[in-house]
Amino acid sequence: MFPLIKVCGMTEAENIRNVELQGVDMIGFIFYPKSPRYLYQMPGYLPACAKRVGVFVNETKENILMYTDRFDLDYIQLHGNEAPEYCRSLRNAGLHLIKAFSISRPKDLLAVSAYNGLCDYYLFDTKTPQYGGSGNQFDWNLLHRYNGPTPFLLSGGINPYSVKALREFCHPYFAGIDINSRFETAPGIKDVERISNFLKELNGFTI
Ligand SMILES: O=C(O)c1ccccc1NCC(=O)[C@H](O)[C@H](O)COP(=O)(O)O
Fold this sequence. Notes:
The protein has a single domain (4-202), classed as Aldolase class I (TIM Barrel, Alpha-Beta Barrel). Helices cover 22% and strands 22% of the residues. The protein has five helices and ten strands. The chain has helices spanning 13-20, 61-71, 84-92, 163-168, 192-202; strands at residues 4-7, 26-30, 51-56, 75-78, 97-103, 121-126, 152-154, 174-179, 184-186, 189-190. The strands form two sheets. It has an eight-stranded parallel barrel with strand order 1-2-3-4-5-6-7-8. The relative contact order is 0.18. It binds ligand LARABZUK.
């Protein structure tokens, strides 16, 4: 099986249930009001097998704790300019963290080491003024300068045609992928068939 699969930016109950049935490992909910995938009300279904990931951008600790409690979140994904000390304080409160880093050039990886030991995963995404969900890919070769120790999710513009590149991508700390806008019929609504076909292809089945 391919490493971890996270599907991000889900909003609607039946859609969540059907995506979870594809065997994905993590499902992300975006609690950032400026995102077109903002989850503004509790869906009628939340994942029971896939881990629940709450995505936040420069959010207060108080609100993060409130959402964690309300949605029973397994991971908190920090997608803004959150400092290492802020991550430490969330970790000390018992939260499991995924810290996102926006990558467009080698120097963007310099900030990463300050977060070592504070996060369960890093998520390397494409730099965009909207913080995430750009649908654009960055140069994955830049990640060969990253030498751990935190495992990472690869993100940013992954699409149904990324299978070959993903199967060829090799890195000792590569833990999985995060998919989002390239698998949507509308913001926040995922195309289950597109995801299903993609996962079959990724795992080596022909479709
Ligand atoms: O998806 C959003 O709208 C979003 C907005 C603000 C912060 C984070 C956001 N998404 C977080 C993710 O983990 C996305 O999956 C990631 O940015 C990749 O998205 P895409 O390029 O669309 O595959």
